[in-house]
UniProtKB/TrEMBL annotation:
Residues 15-252 form the Carbohydrate kinase FGGY N-terminal domain. Residues 263-455 form the Carbohydrate kinase FGGY C-terminal domain. This is Rhamnulokinase. It holds the Pfam family FGGY_N. It comes from the Bacteria. The keyword Acyltransferase does not apply. CDD domains: ASKHA_NBD_FGGY_RhaB-like (cd07771). The keyword Cytoplasm does not apply. InterPro entries: FGGY_C, FGGY_N, Rhamnulokinase. It comes from Paenarthrobacter aromaticivorans. Keywords: ATP-binding, Disulfide bond, Kinase, Nucleotide-binding, Transferase.
Length: 485
């Protein structure tokens, strides 16, 4: 529920939400009648850059944009007679920056799309078997998980690894913490105890203090540094609050589910497909199916598998634009929807699609490897992507139901993919379940709601938070083809 006190009527919250291709600073307002209202204050691009012999993030530029956005947010709030109570930060997972004892970033952080960690996998597995890793961490194997990246570092003495959202929080407050939902993606976190798997740090020769202490969503990281206050004009008592700093954790917290037996798809650059549990599933069957057990808000378990996402589509659009093809996404999807549903498909989460560049050619090559041929037309490539994603979603949800022993009655698609009508309908058809699409800004809404609850503006558990999302969101329902409506 939302407290309707006068003291809270002018409370607003700043959400810093940064994905692999863009970032934004938003203001969130919580109302007992209209749920969560978001106002985008500042948008900025993001992307990997080739720097110092690898694919990295231009973190210095990102932090400058965050400060610019917070400054603009402070001005907007002040002009409205509002007060920003706190700031919450969410980003993608697994990547980190190395900070020395003086608090300086030693280099721009590597991107998970860099290939450096591939060479460390065998060495890590010789020290800790994949079976042992999974039985402890419950983490899906991905060659770019944090432990493989850390194993590629030439020197770690005197350094700490701050996961990307924690690095932003450190530069804003001077406090070093590791938020738990993101910690659970490192491969060095115990899925059952919710603590660091220190035995793995020892086995890999990593410093015992390579990560700062853990902090839970809703806890306060710290107040803003004087230099940040000067640059942004924010009130002196503004705090940074830990939210579900792994963006998927914030997105799942904002799934507007009305029943407990829901499945979710957080659809963006990647697709995160799964169910919400109270305890991890650490079976060998789960490991072989490559499912992950990541922490959610309120110590829930996000039992999911990474499936290829709209990265495939955005990379194709980028390639076509470079060739002078300027058809809009809407018309591309309309043309793809008019094509036959029995066209070729690919494994959308094949690692061959992880790196950027030449995506249409790589998709056609993958189709040839299946013995089929994909027409050299953008609409045909788009239809192949959409069919392949929907088929991947259906396979993953069927596996999740089998491995957890629980059935699901509805699929919620949140994030950017919830706007893609073709993808939503194909997902309903492929899963045989109704799909509820929205909200688009689930990550930012989850971010804001955790802050609002920490401030006492919102009370209750995830059920109550989700009711706030549903109250302020226009949701669209898609029935499976042939279903009785």
């Amino acid at each position: 529920m939302v407290k309707g006190t006068t003291a809270n009527s002018k409370a607003v919250f700043a959400a810093v939400d940064i994905g692999a291709s863009s970032g934004r600073v938003m203001l969130g307002r919580v109302s007992p009648t209209s749920g969560v209202a978001l106002e985008t204050i500042h948008r900025f691009p993001n992307g990997v850059v080739e720097l110092d012999g690898g694919l990295r993030w231009d973190f210095d530029a990102l932090f400058a944009e965050v400060l610019k956005g917070l400054s603009a947010a402070a001005a907007v709030a002040s002009g409205n007679g509002e007060r920003i109570l706190s700031i919450g930060i969410d980003t993608w997972a697994v990547d980190y920056g190395l900070v020395n004892d003086a608090g300086k970033l030693t280099a721009q952080p590597y991107s998970y799309r860099d290939e450096r960690s591939r060479a460390t996998v065998e060495r890590v597995h010789s020290a800790i078997s994949p079976e042992k890793l999974y039985a402890t961490t419950g983490l899906q194997y991905l060659q770019f998980n944090t432990l493989y990246q850390l194993a590629a570092e030439p020197k770690l003495d005197g350094l700490q690894a701050l996961l990307i959202p924690d690095l932003f929080a450190f530069l804003l407050t001077g406090e070093r913490r590791t938020e738990a939902t993101n910690a659970s993606t490192t491969g060095l976190f115990n899925a059952e105890t919710g603590e660091w798997a220190t035995e793995f740090l020892d086995a890999l020769g990593l410093p015992g203090d390579i990560f700062p202490p853990l902090i839970q969503p809703g806890e306060t990281v710290g107040t803003l540094l004087p230099s940040v206050l000067e640059q942004t004009g924010l009130p002196a008592d503004t705090v940074v609050v830990a939210v579900g700093s792994h963006d998927t954790a914030s997105a799942v917290a904002a799934v507007p589910a009305e029943v407990p037996d829901f499945a979710y798809i957080s659809s963006g650059t990647w697709s995160l497909v799964g169910v919400e549990l109270d305890a991890p599933v650490l079976s060998e069957a789960s490991r072989k199916a490559n499912f992950t057990n990541e922490r959610g808000v309120d110590s829930t378990i996000r039992y999911l598998r990474n499936v290829g996402g709209l990265w495939l589509l955005s990379e194709c659009q980028r390639a076509w634009a470079a060739q002078g093809f300027s058809q809009s996404l809407t018309s591309l999807l309309d043309a793809a929807a008019a094509l036959s549903a029995d066209g070729p498909r690919i494994n959308a989460d094949d690692p061959v699609f992880t790196a950027p560049d030449n995506m249409p050619d790589r998709i056609r090559a993958a189709v040839r490897n299946t013995g089929s041929v994909l027409a050299d037309r953008p609409a045909a490539v788009v239809r192949c992507i959409m069919d392949s994603l929907a088929a991947g979603y259906a396979r993953t949800l069927a596996d999740a139901e089998r491995l957890t022993g629980r059935s699901t009655s509805v699929v919620h698609i949140v994030g950017g993919g919830s706007q893609n009508r073709l993808l939503c309908q194909l997902t309903a058809d492929a899963t045989g379940k109704p799909v509820i699409a929205g909200p688009i800004e689930a990550t930012a809404q989850g971010n804001v709601l955790v802050q609002a609850r920490a401030a006492g503006v919102v009370t209750g558990g995830l059920k109550e938070l989700r009711a706030q999302v549903a109250a302020g969101t226009e949701l669209e329902r898609y029935e499976p083809a042939g279903a009785l409506v």
